[in-house]
Design brief:
CATH architecture of one domain: 2-Layer Sandwich
CATH topology of one domain: Beta-lactamase Inhibitory Protein, Chain:B, domain 1
CATH class of one domain: Alpha Beta
Order of helices and strands: HHEHHEEEEH
Strand content: 15-25%
Oligomer: single chain
Length: 149
Amino acid sequence: MPQRLLIAFLAVVSALQGCSWQQVKENLPGVYSMDIHQGNIVSQEMVDQLKPGMNKRQVLFIMGTPLLQDPFHEERWDYFYSNKPSRAVRLQKRISLVFKDEELAGLQGDFRPGSLPSIEPAKEVTLNVPKIKREKTLWESIAGLFGGG
């Protein structure tokens, strides 16, 4: 009996050696796995704010620093985003912005420019607010006794 138990144990151990710890860990209940974000987080709202003719500083303000600036293609900025949620499929997005004469000329990638409603700048209005006459405070009354106002 002990020899059969030993042989069965060795067979199970040798079969489990082929399994990687990563596969075993992913299937265990209650084991926490972190979300892994890499690259530039780019949203559709950010892309919707881009307009042709914007200079590089305006684009930099909206999108942030590009992940890749190729020294051989200075007129192209590349943004990559990768997210690996725990126990889910990896999500990858990319967008390339193309400049011509220091102005945004176009974009390529997984995002498409949307059509956000254009907001007109508010017209400045000046209001004259009348001064409200109130009773003097206790401190103002005491200060008035000594010629302070």
